[in-house]
Amino acid sequence: MTVSLAPAVDRVRAGRWLATLLLVLTVFGPISMDLYLPALPALTTELGAATSLAQLTVTACLIGLAGGQLIAGPLSDRYGRRMPLLIGVTAYVIVSALCAASPTVEILIVARLVQGLAGGVGIVIAQAAGRDVYDGGRLIRFYGRLTVIGGFAAIVGPLLGGVLSTLMDWRGLFLVLAGIGAAILAWAAFGFPETLPATERTTGGFARVGADMRILFSDRRFVGAVLAQGFVYAALFAYLSGATYVLQGVYGLSPQQYALAFGLNSAGFMVFGYLAGRSSERWSVIGTLVIGLIVAGAGAAGLLASGLTHLPLIVVILSLLLLVSGTAITSPPSTTLALSDYPQIAGTASSLLGAARFAFGGIAAPLVGVAGALSILPLGLVTTTSIVLAAIAGVIFLARRTAVTVADTSHTLTTEGTPLCVE
């Protein structure tokens, strides 16, 4: 199969203002997850919740982020990108304020689910609109930058959360999220034009959506990219859910120290996400994906060893760094494989990829709390199992040779481990 990156007809070109806004829209996922993580133990205590129940506030948001993308992606293919985006961001602002007012952990779980649904709209629109306005090598670089910005938001989120947790409680952190959403809403209202012309939109109702999904799921490359990315993100979100308890409960870090450790790992996410985008463009899409799985696997194995033998803190930090860096390496090639061949249904393709990331993560996140807050072993088991499953999916679905043609350059990029060759 050939994955074409040829430009679409009458495509809106991205200026700096629009390009920056598309990148900013990706912060809904990491900011919604990371800003309040340093305060999660305090939230658990204040609401009188069990550790595993409090972690469901993470799971609910992840499931919501997945569901929101599944809903918004096909809708954006049918009605355009702008209106679903504005509706989703408006809902995010409102429900973030409702999270701050939640009197019980059960109500907070429900509110977090809805918050995730609304935040998922911004994520899927960013990826789909990027496919609308970019092509060729610029498209691959854009997906690399999405990974970088996600890592940057992951740094800012816990660092900002750690600082703000010294000034306000967890309820105040949700009000901060509402404020961030309001700022993005104002920017989108004035700076986001419609990127999908009416002539290129899909028609029909649920039957058309079902037909589009059947097309996607019949593509081995698409399925392989989605499964591999979903399992890798299961490991990542297990880390997001469990690391705060491990580093603070097992190794005695303060919320601020945890935020610094988290920021170090997220810096690795940024650096390796950028390098992965360049590697996918200049060397090999599949080769870059394989390297990411190897790096993430090494990190997961380190966490498993730490759970079995209680290794020093530095080993855990390095293992987490490898895990998140490996995740970043897999993101640009997976996104390229999943979206590049489907410009007409980029919203639907993006929604399925994003849903897999967050749905798999939502399933994995609570599993790290089954042994309580004072054990690292479940985190090691969940992350290692997830990476192994990602590798198996890659072998099964991505083993056959594929060529990725970059239309706007004089190169053909193969997904095998071969370098770019000039045509």
Number of strands: 4
Radius of gyration: 20 Å
- Beginning-to-end CA distance, first to last residue: 19 Å
Give the helix/strand class: mainly alpha
Point out poorly predicted stretches: 1-9, 401-423
Strand content: under 5%
The rough form would be described as globular
- Biggest pleated sheet: 4 strands, mixed
Strand line-up of the largest beta sheet:
1-2-3-4
Q: What's the rounded overall pLDDT mean?
A: 81
> What count of helical segments does DSSP give?
15
Question: Can you offer a commentary on this structure?
Answer:
- It is a single chain.
- This protein has 423 residues and is an all-alpha fold.
- Helix content is 74%, strand content 3%.
- The protein is built from 15 helices and four strands.
- It has helices spanning 16-25, 28-34, 40-46, 51-79, 82-100, 105-133, 136-164, 170-191, 206-217, 220-250, 255-282, 285-309, 313-339, 346-364, 377-397; strands at 2-4, 403-405, 411-414, 421-422.
- It has a four-stranded mixed sheet with strand order 1-2-3-4, with helices on one face.
- α5 packs antiparallel against α8 (170-191) and α12 runs antiparallel to α13 (313-339).
- Mean pLDDT is 81; it is low at 1-9 and 401-423.
